[in-house]
Write the structure tokens for this entry.
Amino acid sequence: MRTALITGADRGLGLSLTLGLLEQGWQVFAGRFLPDYRLLDEACARYPLLRPVPLDVSSRQSILDACAMVRQETEYLDMIISNAAYMGGPNSSGFRGELPIDYSLLEYSFRVNSLGALQVMEIFLPLVEAGEMKRLCFVSSEVSSVTMMHRDAGFRYTMTKTALNVAARIMYNQLFEKGYTFRLYQPGWMKRVNPDGSRAEGADIDPDLSAGEALRQFLEDREDEQRLVLTDYLGHEWAY
């Protein structure tokens, strides 16, 4: 049986990825963080292979505790999907803009989007080593691309997703020759999922649509696995 860990699975892309893998017969350990969202609980009644796990990726102790819980139920993971992210909160100012940069929130963004992803991979890697697939997947963003960056504000999400790409590159350089394969995915501007499962207005893409393409890319082998590439929900490759 294939087994995966997905971070940030309470709602949105993470929840859609979780349900998509469950539909394909995977066992999924779904990281939960948001107390107002009970969508994972509702899904448990339909999917006996769903295992919600409390997981705050900004806390190393929380990651360690989650890993201990997962180890109680499985000896291996085939895939990790690092999806948990902090978008940046309100008042994300430009450099020397009217609003001051909130460095405490910037640091928190790094703990979630960059360091959190790195620590999850580090702590759970022995379980992936014991699996057959050995696939590490990272949900990145179009704003992570240095060569395509045209924004003049929004340091939190942009800086931290670029740092995520660098971390994935270093892990790739170390682990590819040991049989690991990697995916960097740009999901597009997705509709926000409300606590009742409805979609908020605005944005372009339903999370279910983006998750469907993500899973196709995450699960299929590529002929050019020796390249680490950033691809989007349309299958296009991005510079990063």
Summary: The beta strands are 3-6, 27-32, 50-54, 79-82, 135-139, 181-186, 230-232, 237-238.
